[in-house]
Amino acid sequence: MEITFEYWNKLATQTVFISSLLGGFSILVIANLLISDLNTRLSKYIMVFATLAASLFLVSIFAWTSVMMMTTAGYPNKVVSSDLTFHRTLGAFTFLLGIISLIAMISSVGWIKSKKMGKITTIIGVLSLILILLTMFKG
Q1: How far apart, in Å, are the Cα atoms of 28 and each of 23, 31, 121, 122, 132?
Q2: What is the dihedral of CA 29, 12, 125, 132, to 10 degrees?
Q3: pLDDT at 127 over 90
Q4: What distance in Å separates the CA atoms of residue 10 and residue 53, rounded to the nearest whole number?
Q5: How far is residue 3's CA from residue 5's CA, in Å, rounded to a whole number?
Q6: Are 53 and 19 in contact (CB under 8 A)?
Q7: What DSSP letter does each residue of the chain carry, written as one string?
Q8: What angle do CA 13, 14, 15 make, to 5 degrees?
Q9: What φ, ψ does residue 71 adopt, rounded to 5°?
């Protein structure tokens, strides 16, 4: 069954919105880490996860924006379904990796306070990732 351009347009619109929010959250974490006095190995890993998440969500935004533009009425070039493949694949892949990076960042934060808090945030992060993946791929 061929998926319509209208569907791709709505999916792209929602994914751009979600990626923007999550990317903004990741950038906020980066900014807070930059101005903090924390200079531990763990805070550096959190900074890497946050930077990776922000960058991946940014790529996802641009990929899905291309899909959104190509599937909007009035687009100046003729578009066939195969023209969307690269942008959809790149957008979906970077969105998924961005979520994984974001969950890794969230899971790591608790370890700054204590081992107990680290274990709790890691468990919550793993459960969140499993539930997110289930909702994304079970439809």
Answers
A1: 9, 5, 19, 21, 22
A2: 170
A3: yes
A4: 23
A5: 7
A6: no
A7: -PPPHHHHHHHHHHHHHHHHHHHHHHHHHHHHHHHS---SHHHHHHHHHHHHHHHHHHHHHHHHHHHHHHTSTT-SS---GGGGHHHHHHHHHHHHHHHHHHHHHHHHHGGGT-HHHHHHHHHHHHHHHHHHHHHHH--
A8: 95
A9: -100, 5
Which tokens is 117 given?
A: 């808090």
Provide φ and ψ at 113, rounded to 5°.
Answer: -80, -55
Task: Give the model's pLDDT for residue 139.
Answer: 65
By percentage, how much of the chain surpasses pLDDT 70?
99
Q: What is the average per-residue pLDDT within 110-126?
A: 95
- Cα 50 to the chain's mean position, in Å? 11
The whole model's pTM is what?
Answer: 0.92
Residues 11 and 49: their CA atoms lie apart, in Å, by 26
Residue 43 has pLDDT above 70, yes or no: yes
Give the Cα separation of 35 and 20 in Å (integer). 23
